[in-house]
Amino acid sequence: MLGTTTTTTRRPRFDRLAFAAVAFVALLALAVVVGNALAAGTVSVLLGAFALAVGVAVVTALPFVLVRAMSEVAFR
What we know:
The chain has helices at residues 11-40, 45-74. It is elongated and about 55 Å long. The chain starts with 10 loop residues before the first helix and ends with a helix. The protein contains 2 helices and no strands. It has one domain (13-74). By secondary structure, it is mainly α. The chain crosses the membrane at residues 17-39, 45-67.
């Protein structure tokens, strides 16, 4: 059967979706800033681009962390 899971809960699927969303947004932000830095010829901006990508990943992950914490409390 295609598309079926063997787990009894949907939480692992939510975790994979959350990780994929956070990784996509962080990599997109990093790619845009690195592309702009390379186009401008400034290599020192690359460290700032990495810091921005980490910040974007943290901000993007916050809603998923909140939902995960609320679901943990609700399922107890």
